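Problem: given the chain below (676 residues), write out its structure.
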Amino acid sequence: MALDRLLRPRSIAVVGGGAWCANVIRECRKIGFGGALWPVHPTKPEMGGLPAFASIEDLPDVPDASFVGVNRHATVEVITALARRGGGGAICFASGFQEAVAELHDGADLQAALLQAAGDMPILGPNCYGLINGLDGITLWPDHHGMVRVDRGVAVVTQSSNIALNLTMQTRGLPLAYLVTAGNQAQTDLAAIGMALLNDPRVTALGLHIEGIGALRRFEALAAEARRLGKPIIALKVGASDQARIAAVSHTASLAGSDAGARALLQRLGIGQVESLSTFLEVLKLLHVTGPLPSNRIASMSCSGGEASLMADMAVGRDVSFPALNERQVEQLREALGPKVALANPLDYHTYIWADRAAMAACFAAMLDDDIALALVVLDFPRPDRCTAPEWNLVIEAVGDAMAAKGRPIAILSSLPETLPEEIAERLIARGIVPLSGLNDAIDAIGIAADLEPRVEAEPLLVPGPDGPSHILDEATAKSDLASFGLAIPQGRAVSAASEAATAARDIGGAVVVKGRGLTHKTEVGAVKVNVSGDAAVCDAVHSMAAASFLIEEMIGDGVVELLVGVVRDEAHGFVLTLGAGGTFAELMNDTTHLLLPTHPAEINAALDGLRLAPQLQGYRGAPAVDRSAIVSAVLAVQDYVVAHARAVFEVEVNPLICTPTRAVAADALIRLRET
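Solution.
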């Protein structure tokens, strides 16, 4: 469904008589919309100084875009009329549709009627504030905003009207090409809007504020199109849910949840995720000027030891690196700065060269290296209402000189957001210099801009089947089913009496594990006894458990590490694979990482390396190393089972997976499937 006419209309109809509609007319004039503007109202002769038309049918031509600011029932009627005339698209401002089903019993039915009325005509919303096109001077927008006309810039799509409004008021110099609100996405979702915006050649990057992801395949297609065009996507994802964890059967489900699925999805697709609106703006600004960074290796320069120390501290716990200076850098810095300056990265170049443009340019150029993705000059500007500061302009000139000499990007970074005025930020962008505001947000933005490669290239996600009632397989059946896909399980036997348990233990040989069957979280209810030897001890263990039958298994005695390997069905994001510390401390340790299926050995190994317990896998303080290939094989076996039963799987968990120097054995397993 093409959105061109709606996003870039030559004619706009404004339907409704309230203040919101009057505001749309006001904002169209304010931004300089040059096309036809037609108010529509059944009784008012004029609106906003323009003659009004009594109905859609009375309009002199078919509108490319319409702002429909009437009540929810009238909205359906207006959309019907616009679609009949071949309208290019509409903003549905009214609320009270699917998003309000908890409060309004007819909300879902009314939304169905709206979609039928629209047919092939694109609509945004309902419950949608509208859009602003800063490239062409278009405001289908019922309120004040802070956007201005730009020649090129970033596009932002959000599900929150108020957040959208706030973003337009930013004073960080970020050029906003489009700002679009999606409402409840009855027809046109974030992916469809994002796709249309990315295909405008004047758009440099896309920012998404996401409350929920709709169709996975469309979102995958959006990410693929962004990669094809070389335009990065940044997302602020909100709305992590605790409900799934509350209802969880397995440890995996309690540790995963929808937030983990969203993070894994964005990382998999190469979409940068931010945690705050301020970082959202900073990384979009950085990407607008430089595009994605080739690495996280950066250089910092300031004329203050305190600032240099702050910058060094910023790297701790963040995904950036300040590499040591090489011989060439040291030689050229010494020539530029003299013998009194201690040379390091971050660099305190002192004030010896302050106000000397040539010397500063030589210093900045010396720090630039082919191995540096971005250089930073820390510079806080004096308040323009109280100070004149021509020397600060010399720093800008010196940065420009260094960039011209070396062909490498430099950012001017203010330690505080308020010490980089908007006018200066805009001037820097015009010169190809990145203006970054605030140390924390800037360093986070750099780490994100350097990590935008997709984790799995061009591999469609495994999509779950429908929801519905489910049941849990008993442990023995779960293990047997997983073993048929290659998972190693202990030698064992299911029994129903103490005498059978003793016989089974003798047949297995050595110490055994005795478990009560039909119970989840068996350790918590005393239904597991480990390292049991001898007939009497086996019988005592069986009699101590409130279970009708039992599982007798070999004791895996040479374990080095216990892992959790689990998969949960996440309707919004696919199947979430959780890897982490296992056993009885799975939730307590909370040392987990998350991937989406399908995954591959390299990705699994990288995930294992990211765990806090990774040193134990390699052999820690004299302990033997585990068989990593056996762990990877176990994970792939679980994946193969899920792929084969994707329509039915809700949860699969192996906990613990006992990892030894020679194998990885599933000591316990849980499978929950949808009822057929």
